[in-house]
Amino acid sequence: MKQRYRYLGALLFLAACSVKSTVFDQLSYFYKPVSFPVLAHDSTAVFFDSLSSRMVRWKKADVFNPAAIVRNDSIYVLSRCEDNPAAALGGRTSRIGISSSTDGIHFYSYPQPVLYPAKDDFQSFDYPGGCEDPRIVETPEGSYVMAYTSWNDQVPRLSIAWSKDLFHWQKKGPAFAKAYEHRFLDTASKSASMVTAMVNGKPVLAKIAGKYWMYWGEHFVNLAWSENLSDWYPLLDPDGHLKKIMQTRAHYFDSDLVECGPPALITDRGVMLIYNGKNANQVAQADPMLPRGTYSVGRVFFDPKNLQTILIRSDGPFLKPTLPHELSGQYAAGTTFAEGLVFYKEKWWLYYGTADSYVGVAISK
Predict the structure, then answer these.
(1) Cβ of 6: how many Cβ atoms within 10 Å?
(2) Closest Cα partner for 110 from 137, 85, 135, 79?
(3) Which residues, including other chains, have CB under 8 Å from residue 85's CB and lie 6 or more apart?
(4) pLDDT mean across residues, the chain
(5) DSSP string spanning 191-208?
(6) pTM greater than 0.90 (yes/no)
(7) C-alpha to C-alpha distances, 200 to 18, 27, 203, 208, 291, nearest whole angstrom
(8) Domains contained in the chain, CATH given
(9) Is residue 165 within 8 Å of residue 181, measured between CB atoms?
(10) Between these two residues, 332 and 97, which has the higher pLDDT value?
(11) Which residues, at least 6 apart from 249, have a Cβ–Cβ distance to it below 8 Å?
(12) How far apart are CA 124 and CA 15, in angstroms?
């Protein structure tokens, strides 16, 4: 199996190399095309919440942490939307809304959320905190898989949902519910970046050795595999604990957290994982070049022949808070938190949350 893993990984790597080199070269440089957020809160949007039996202003507080996908010549962004601005950070209910754009900057936002806590089999996982921080991938057959955080105010759980049109989603429940006899069902998990490859000009889910793979985690990065995209199995170390394939680094931008960002992508340099690093609050651990507590965005490349092996890891962030809406809001220490990456009109578009309050965009040069 190990030999086959390496062989198929090499084939995927060669396939990536056959993509026009400029497509991957563009991933090295991003700029912010506008100084304003592309999505923000909306106090006029209302939704009937079946759990409380009342109308709620479901995106009155904040709109942030976006996933992104291209469909029918438009960019669709699915964002985490919070309802109650009076509640403290982490004390609101999140629902996932959808917006579309033909220029990547100006969006039409649909009036109803597409994924939210409801009276269903997953209420105990999703409520009252809600459905948070989506990442979306397209399957080779044209369906969509979302990895998101179910938050019941007790344990955050990485969960999975499926859709054929981005608007109607079928929840599959916690990703690790079945793994190792339910051992990790009640263990905190979040932030999944499934491995994709460029197919016909867009990232599409890729198999290696007959399995799908995803990087996930925030305090450290783990790797998990699946055969059906709903049930996932995290890698374990020799002692049976979750395997830490990438960890925080003292005195770097990721000294406090390493949290997975958009779907990983097989490139000519390796499997690229864009990730979000948080700078430590302690002077002895923090990167002195960034304000303490800042979230910024870096990248790491893994070996396509062994997805656990780091080839290149950035010393500093390629995206960090500089604009007013990135330095204010719920999280005033400063936040650029990337979750959505698409290739559209011959450019890469990176969508990110700003200060847990808005959605921003950066474009490849």
Answers:
(1) 16
(2) 79
(3) 41, 60, 61, 62
(4) 94
(5) -EEEEEEEETTEEEE--B
(6) yes
(7) 12, 18, 8, 19, 41
(8) 2-364 (2.115.10.20)
(9) no
(10) 97
(11) 255
(12) 43
